[in-house]
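Input structure tokens:
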């Protein structure tokens, strides 16, 4: 298996939940890391095949709470190659 490809995206706090939902629905994402402006990891989301629906509900609640804390976040997105 090859190494995952990582990319960073800067996201405003108000768009954090919707952007993560978009990424999850892409289906080729292995992991999403949410970092604050200081570069500290706030949340790490491992995504395995078959993670859908109700399993992600607590994640959306946590992301909504985190989004209210700062104006911008960096998403580190690891994709399957």
């Amino acid at each position: 298996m090859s190494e995952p490809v990582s990319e960073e995206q800067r996201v405003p706090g108000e768009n954090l939940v919707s952007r993560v939902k978009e990424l999850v629905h892409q289906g080729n994402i292995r992991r999403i890391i949410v970092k604050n402006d200081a570069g500290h990891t706030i949340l790490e989301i491992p995504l395995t095949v078959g993670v859908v629906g109700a399993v992600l509900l607590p994640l959306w609640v946590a992301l909504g709470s985190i989004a209210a804390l700062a104006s911008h976040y960096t998403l580190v997105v690891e994709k399957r190659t």
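Strands lie at 5-12, 29-35, 41-46, 72-79. The chain has a mean pLDDT of 82.
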